[in-house]
Write a structure and sequence with these properties.
The structure is a homodimer. Chain A has 2 domains: 286 residues, Alpha-Beta Complex (Spore Coat Polysaccharide Biosynthesis Protein SpsA, Chain A); 83 residues, no CATH class. Helix content of chain A is 25%, strand content 30%. Chain A contains 10 helices and 16 strands. The first copy, chain A, is globular, with a radius of gyration of 21 Å. The interface between A and B is large, with 39 and 39 residues.
């Protein structure tokens, strides 16, 4: 899907107060922890989705990493987490510092936009001048310091400007599975961060187009991370997704009303339709940890290209290019095998060819009927 | 190694009492449970060798199967088990009916002949007319009824004849890793069992020779199972392995004397040198369970040739010819992989190409230095 933005307005300069540290007292964060999924079976399950896993070489869960990444930018009492009711206990265990009133529960999955609006209603009720960043809880980010600098710059931008900010990640290959953002004119520079108008969003382009984007150097990946003034964003929701705005008027919504909401993402519901969106191309590496092979970028390989994630200890004998993961201490011995993903979790074990990792969902589908307790 | 027997004596007919059930009151069994080995890592360890594993589709350990295979032929009180000191507790747990005085402990591994002589000294002290069978504890046998019939016939033969009996297994391929026995003239028929003189033993023949043996139909595999009169065998030991006979004069031997014994097998120490050995070609299938791929013969394959052994439940998605084993309940999911051995045991996991199963020992060698608690 390609949407060209034709109505880019000219912008006033960023207000100077945005750069002062005192201005950050209105900064809030929304962590979206409502994800579910089957691509990380058997480590992730319906009862324990990806954001609760410690993958790669970090001993912290992805959710915990997302939480600590905010340290020094957004204080604990201004961090809101939205998750499925079924996962409230896991969130509380991962984030003991989370204020009980800052945990919002979704009665059912409705994609990201309703979750964000729910959180923003809670923030708006406390602080009419609030700015907020919206962050997924299941991505991995290379440099925390560089991330904090970007986050700080984007929140500052949001304090002085109505534009919605999306973080644009530098692409490292012509990905067809991501959303791409074409960078328009530069708009502002803040704390060394350069903001650009969004010329257009392109969701999951065909390979030929992705190759052009990648070669051209004027595109970034849509990271799914955003920053904006809360009132600015809620006004955009009222305009582009009125059903969501009307269905969530307060931080509390009945389960019945919630279920009546459309299931829609921030991108499809608001960003792609709004005319005042800027992109902040960032420097840090980003990994959406989409399936097991994505872990390869998060752990060092041995001399034969084998990688051990989580708590797996690897012993390889004439084995190459394999990725092993265990969520408890485990010794994984490989003999004569290549390009496999091997995962041990609880009483389940997965051995999968790397290029078939997408088919793990078929296993989960079969288990859902044959052995539902393992799905 | 090829030894041709030149001194086959002519034999008297089997004494008629051998066929009576009353005659079986002198029948004893020696179960050799002293094996150790690394080819079944990680399920087997130094602390828990193969005979203590439940592999294939039988829920009983191989040792327990060997024990119960004697039911109806040799009563419990006449079964002797020889094992390493370190494994006494495992044996007692597997065989609660075993009389405490019938468990003999080896202070160190000295191959099979010293272990057998130790057991035979204990038997001879109780019953000067005893006959005994010697059975490994880590082989799998297809038909227990057919096995019992062979065992009964061989013990009867031993009661009436000084010849040492070896059970010869019908070969199903030209194996180069086994001992072969060339059948000589038929000597006796008992309970429908036909005994033959052993013309010669050939240990691990080259492939061309193994092919000739296999095609010729006059060879059997040496099963490592024997039956004989106890005094006959001890006399043969005194003659062919006098150091062993002299070193073990009673069922109790000091650790120092034991360690001074040569490490030697029944075959090399006695059978291959003795001139009065007969072979009983049997009908039952036999599997020495030499390494993981050998389990394939013990479990049914699914339509794609995948096999699950032990307590593994298998879910295969476009996977072929794999063998999975788990010694505790485990769900093993395979996606897009072929001809692998996958084993889960405790906190260890093995993924090995089937044709590389012999290299599992390399993993164990490395662990012995890097992580000795897992070897």
């Amino acid at each position: 899907m390609v949407r060209t933005r034709t109505s880019a307005r000219s912008k006033p300069a960023i207000k100077s107060r945005a750069k002062s540290a005192a201005g950050m007292q209105h900064a809030y964060a929304v962590i979206l922890a409502g994800g579910s999924g089957t691509r990380f079976w058997p480590a992730s399950r319906r009862r324990k989705p990806k954001q609760f896993l410690a993958v790669g070489s970090d001993e912290r869960s992805l959710l915990r990493q997302a939480w600590e990444r905010l340290d020094g930018v957004v204080p604990v009492e201004r961090r809101i987490v939205v998750c499925a009711k079924a996962h409230a206990r896991l969130v509380r265990a991962a984030l003991p510092e989370l204020r009980p009133t800052n945990l919002l529960l979704e009665p059912a999955a409705r994609n990201t936009l309703p979750a964000v609006v729910l959180a923003l209603r809670a923030i708006a009720a406390r602080d009419p001048h609030a700015v907020a960043c919206v962050l997924p809880s299941d991505h991995a980010i290379g440099s925390e310091d560089a991330f904090r600098a970007s986050l700080h710059a984007a929140l500052c931008h949001a304090q002085g400007d109505d534009a919605l900010v999306v973080f644009g990640v530098p692409p490292d290959h012509p990905a067809t599975g991501y959303g791409w953002i074409e960078l328009g004119d530069a708009t502002a520079r803040l704390d060394g961060a350069r903001f650009h108008k969004v010329a257009r969003f392109v969701e999951k382009p065909p390979l030929a187009l992705a190759r052009r984007f990648f070669a051209g150097g004027r595109h970034a990946w849509n990271s799914g991370m955003f920053a904006f003034g809360v009132e600015s964003f809620l006004a955009a929701v009222a305009r582009h997704a009125p059903q969501v705005a009307a269905g969530i008027r307060a931080p509390r919504v009945s389960a019945t009303s919630w279920r009546a909401l459309p299931s829609i993402s921030i991108d499809h519901g608001v960003m792609e339709h709004h005319d005042d969106v800027v992109v902040l191309p960032v420097e840090w590496s980003w990994n959406d940890v989409g399936a097991w092979p994505a872990l390869a970028a998060l752990v060092q390989a041995d001399s034969a290209g084998n990688r051990a994630s989580g708590r797996a200890k690897l012993v390889a004998e004439d084995a190459r290019g394999n990725l092993v993961h265990a969520d408890e201490d485990a010794l994984v011995a490989l003999v004569g095998v290549e390009d496999l993903v091997v995962v041990r979790s609880g009483r389940c074990l997965l051995v999968c060819r790397k290029d078939r990792a997408q088919d793990v969902r078929r296993i989960v589908e079969r288990l859902a009927s044959e052995a539902p307790e393992e799905a």
